[in-house]
UniProtKB/TrEMBL annotation:
UniProt keyword Iron-sulfur, yes or no: no
NCBIfam families: dapA
Protein's name according to its UniProt entry: 4-hydroxy-tetrahydrodipicolinate synthase
The keyword Repeat is assigned to this record: no
Keywords: Amino-acid biosynthesis, Cytoplasm, Diaminopimelate biosynthesis, Lyase, Lysine biosynthesis, Schiff base
EC number(s) given by UniProt: 4.3.3.7
One Pfam family named in its UniProt record: DHDPS
Site (Part of a proton relay during catalysis): 46, 109
Reactions that this protein is recorded to catalyse: L-aspartate 4-semialdehyde + pyruvate = (2S,4S)-4-hydroxy-2,3,4,5-tetrahydrodipicolinate + H2O + H(+)
CDD domains: DHDPS (cd00950)
Gene: dapA
GO biological process, one term: diaminopimelate biosynthetic process
Active site per the UniProt annotation: 135, 164
SMART domains: DHDPS
């Protein structure tokens, strides 16, 4: 369980100008994040534009990521969907080499009942050779995994080890924190509220902003884990504006704009997502420059 304390980053998928996966830049990004001090990476979560990738691309990205990471940090694969049987099959076929857990978002669009959500995760837990981290993100899925369902799953399945909680509902977060098993991890899934969630006992964050600013975010989370919230607050305040800008025109368009400014990868996305506007890109570049020591970003 200690593998997933601290800073995790849901890594973007860099694309070339023609829309093909840019493996050279993916390697650069992985090394940048590891050098930035993150504890683990999530390959092909929402931020990886996973829904625009076919199964062959996913398999290649997972294998490539594990090869580049080479055990230097812990690694999580994002495998989810709204067809339970298909998700179970993908998990059964998944090459677990190099991976430590699976992050699985609750079903989107179907809007299942709480019993449906429970049965969905029960089927996944029974099929998975790796530990499962739940992912509750109602703003994307159209339904909420309630505190009662989260705690029920945590109690019923030993291999469901935590939840990435992105509801933003602190009444719900409080209830999960109070009622969960002692070793069940609650992980922030929403960058702006990582500090207050950790003050309540969260184990850390699976971050979007960390793609661009891994060292800053890792330092903040490290202070939180050490109970030094005064130091953490200073970094949290420094990141408020850049965090807002990275989400104002959607994810991962904002963070890819920052990564382009930093010279790490381009800002190409796959439709239906598009890059941020020029006005927002300029603001992101300026705020990123204010926070980092980068002098002359590469051009893409």
């Amino acid at each position: 369980m200690n593998k997933f304390y601290g800073t995790g980053v849901a890594i973007v998928t860099p694309f070339q100008a023609d829309g093909q996966v840019d493996y050279n830049r993916l390697k650069d990004l992985i090394n940048y994040l590891i050098d930035g001090g993150v504890q683990y990476l999530v390959s092909l979560g929402t931020t990886g534009e996973t829904v625009t990738l076919n199964q062959q691309e996913k398999k290649k990205i997972w294998a490539f990521t594990a090869e580049v990471v080479a055990g230097r940090v812990n690694l999580v694969a994002g495998i989810g969907g709204n067809n339970t049987l298909e998700v179970v099959q993908q998990i059964k076929e998944f090459d677990t080499n190099g991976y430590d857990a699976i992050l699985s978002a609750s079903p989107a669009y179907n809007k299942p009942t709480q019993e449906g959500i429970y049965q969905h995760y029960k089927a996944i837990a029974q099929a998975s050779p790796l530990p499962i981290i739940l992912y509750n993100v109602p703003s994307r899925t159209g339904s909420n995994v309630s505190a009662e369902t989260t705690v029920r799953l945590a109690n019923d399945f030993n291999n469901i080890i935590g939840t990435k909680e992105a509801s933003g509902n602190f009444d719900q977060i409080n209830q999960i924190m109070r009622d969960k098993p002692k070793d069940f991890l609650v992980i922030s899934g929403d960058d702006p509220v990582t500090l207050p969630m950790m003050a309540l006992g969260a184990a850390g964050v699976i971050s979007v902003v960390g793609n661009a600013l891994p060292s800053q975010l890792s330092e903040m989370v490290h202070h939180c884990l050490a109970g030094d919230y005064k130091s953490a607050q200073k970094i949290h305040s420094q990141l408020i504006d850049i965090t807002r800008l990275m989400f104002v025109e959607g994810n991962p368009a904002g963070v890819k704009s920052a990564l382009k400014h930093l010279g790490i990868c381009g800002d190409t996305l796959r439709l239906p997502l598009v890059p941020v506007s020029d006005a927002t890109a300029k603001k992101i570049a300026q705020e990123t420059q204010n926070i980092t020591t980068v002098k002359s970003p590469a051009k893409y």
